[in-house]
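A further point concerns the way the authors explain their paired sequence and structure data. Showing the layout once, in full, would remove most of the difficulty. For illustration, here is how one protein appears when written out as sequence plus structure tokens:
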Amino acid sequence: MEGVSFTLDQFTETLEKYDYESEIGTKVKGTVFGTETSGAFVDITSKSTAYLPLYEASLYKLRHVEEAGIFPGVKEEFVIVGQNEIDDGMILSLRDIQFELAWERCRQLQAEDAVVKGKIIDANKGGVVAEVEGLKGFVPFSQMSTKSPGEEIIEFEVPLKFVEVDQEQARLVLSHRKAVAGIQDN
């Protein structure tokens, strides 16, 4: 190329010296440059493309990445969770970062002995499953102050307190009884 003081080989060699971290688990900053029904395309300034699949865009179930605030031009921190075998592009996640933040928030709320709202999403023979801060937690029937069967309160929001927050064991145990007692004491 005329007027250029280096060759294409020299340019490629220089780029390789400054290869960006692209290992799984690495956090990277990126800018969304396109969205589609199944995810978003992200510029992470590496030599390959990066893609944020819909299921990795949020802790919550979404129909489109825009529901998570993902639009072209948005700058965000992502974590690399995989590599696309077809084009060697990076697969990104916001969900993993949100997951860590949700556990941190639950630990903080437990330390503050805070009452939180949880949505009952399922029931089984031992209790109910509630969603709090995007995480699923278990509320044993012994910790429910209502006598209603679990199936009758699905989709209801109830006040809850944290009994156990153990990220390593993926255990989140909650109490409706303690939350109600705390509210009545105030």
Observations:
- The chain has three helices and ten strands.
- The beta strands are 27-36, 39-43, 50-53, 75-83, 90-93, 116-124, 127-132, 135-140, 157-166, 171-175.
- The radius of gyration is 23 Å.
- The first helix runs from residue 8 to 17.
